[in-house]
């Protein structure tokens, strides 16, 4: 591909050199278009040497070849890393006062921006609005990483790692439709996306079963993956509801405002919420970690130590997903409903994790099953995830997608697999 790599003036500009090298190693032709400020951080010679192409910041170089139009026209992908708040503002406004912004106005290919700036700048309403508008126009804006910033401060605003930028950029370039690749945290994005007019319900977090008024049986699910899925569905235009089972408040606070949140706690509450949505939902994604058992009885008052051991009697919880499949198969739910299960497996010496997941798909009878390997410390509470998506094929479970990266990135790929399944 012919790729334009826009570099703007931030301390992270040096990381763009790694992005450039990665793109070149994959055989792409890359034209680097820095802003004048970017050259303060990394000089022209570096970009020219690494790209093997001339570097200019202004529309007044190469005028005879009408460079400011030609570069944009010929580009098959534009990647901007780092993208400063200033660049996002100028691009949103359509200002074309240097070669990069002029190129952005003439480019018709996918545009992927990796912002980097101080947290306050990223969270400033002006930047938030600029990002939302650019996403609506089809830009892929990668969520900045959280961590140490230029000074002693830290927070969201770090440039994501070059490999993540490369992955998101190439995914956007090959995406059949840009909106699905948009970042999940945009509230407004995707109102006209591929899931527009579709109702998506996502369960997230982990159910808790009370033992007494202060104790419960629970699990380690943070709800991050489910929340990211809800955000991805909303970004793709779906009317989205998150059934949040004990999801961290910080995770809920980060959700786009167009995701409706219903909070539940126990399996019974989650089941009631799922069933209430079953007749209207086009897609139900069961990402929640549901407790398989609950105490036969919850003590009314706080249990006291007895001096000896404690034997708890547990009874089995209903399998909500299985109930949804049965209701759908009996024609009791919305026609054409797509049911998606999750399988968090560690595997065992006898059976590898992915085989357990494949068996689960066939046992549960869902349309898709998202498998994540949770052996070791993987998945729970982490920001990254690796998943494989299966559907029932003629010869057992058939792999339809595989994704690794941030939970937001993985969510886009899962939503894409769901869209593909619904249009199959
Ligand atoms: O059987 P297992 O718990 O591994 O299945 C996982 C899938 O089933 C997840 O999608 C989970 O949300 C769902 N599930 C459920 N009700 C249960 C247990 C799991 O809906 N009681």
What small molecules are bound in this structure? cytidine-5'-monophosphate
Share of residues in helices: 25-40%
Unreliable runs, pLDDT <50, ≥5 residues? 176-191
Please state the overall shape, judged from the principal axes of the Cα atoms: elongated
- What is the topology, as strand order, of the major beta sheet? 12-11-8-13-16-17-18-19
**Tally of DSSP β-strands:** 19
Tally of contiguous helical segments = 16
Describe the structure.
The protein is an alpha/beta fold. The chain is 36% helix and 25% strand. The protein has 16 helices and 19 strands. The radius of gyration is 24 Å and the shape is elongated. Mean pLDDT is 90; it is low at 176-191. The structure holds cytidine-5'-monophosphate. The site of cytidine-5'-monophosphate has 12 residues, from α14 and β16.
What descriptors fit this protein?
single chain, binds cytidine-5'-monophosphate, alpha/beta, 8-stranded mixed sheet
């Amino acid at each position: 591909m012919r790729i334009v790599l826009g570099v703007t003036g931030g301390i992270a500009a040096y990381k763009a050199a790694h992005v450039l090298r990665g793109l070149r190693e994959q055989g792409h032709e890359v034209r680097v278009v820095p802003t004048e400020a970017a050259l303060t951080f990394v000089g022209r010679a570096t970009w020219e040497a690494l790209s093997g192409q001339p570097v200019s910041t202004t529309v007044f170089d190469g005028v005879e070849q009408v460079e400011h139009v030609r570069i944009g026209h010929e580009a098959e992908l534009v990647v901007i890393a780092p993208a400063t708040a200033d660049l996002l503002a100028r691009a949103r406004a359509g200002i074309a006062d240097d070669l990069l912004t002029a190129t952005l106005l003439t480019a018709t290919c996918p545009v992927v921006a990796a912002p980097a700036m101080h947290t306050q700048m990223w969270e400033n309403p002006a930047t938030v609005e600029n990002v939302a508008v650019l996403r609506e126009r089809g830009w892929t804006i990668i969520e900045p990483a959280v961590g140490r910033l230029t000074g002693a401060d830290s927070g969201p605003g770090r440039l994501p790692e070059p490999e993540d930028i490369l992955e998101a950029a190439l995914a956007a370039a090959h995406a059949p439709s840009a909106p699905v690749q948009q970042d999940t945290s945009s509230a407004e994005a995707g109102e006209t996306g591929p899931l527009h007019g579709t109702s998506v319900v996502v369960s997230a977090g982990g159910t808790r079963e009370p033992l007494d008024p202060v104790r419960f049986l629970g699990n380690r699910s943070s709800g991050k993956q489910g929340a990211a899925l809800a955000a991805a569905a909303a970004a793709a235009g779906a009317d989205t509801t998150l059934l949040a089972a004990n999801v961290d408040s910080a995770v809920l606070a980060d959700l786009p405002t167009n995701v409706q949140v219903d909070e539940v706690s126990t399996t019974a509450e989650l089941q009631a919420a799922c069933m209430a949505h079953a007749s209207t939902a086009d897609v139900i994604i069961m990402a929640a970690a549901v407790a398989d058992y609950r105490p036969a009885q919850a003590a009314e008052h706080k249990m006291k130590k007895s001096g000896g051991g404690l034997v708890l009697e547990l009874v089995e919880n209903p399998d909500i997903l299985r109930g949804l499949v049965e209701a759908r198969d009996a024609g009791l739910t919305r026609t054409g409903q797509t049911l998606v299960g999750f399988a968090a497996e560690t595997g065992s010496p006898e059976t590898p994790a992915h085989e357990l997941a494949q068996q689960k798909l066939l046992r549960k009878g869902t349309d898709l099953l998202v498998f994540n390997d949770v052996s070791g410390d993987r998945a729970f509470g982490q920001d990254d995830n690796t998943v494989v998506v299966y559907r029932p094929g003629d010869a057992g479970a058939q792999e339809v997608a595989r994704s690794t990266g941030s939970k937001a990135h993985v969510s886009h790929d899962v939503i894409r697999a769901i869209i593909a399944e619904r249009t199959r």
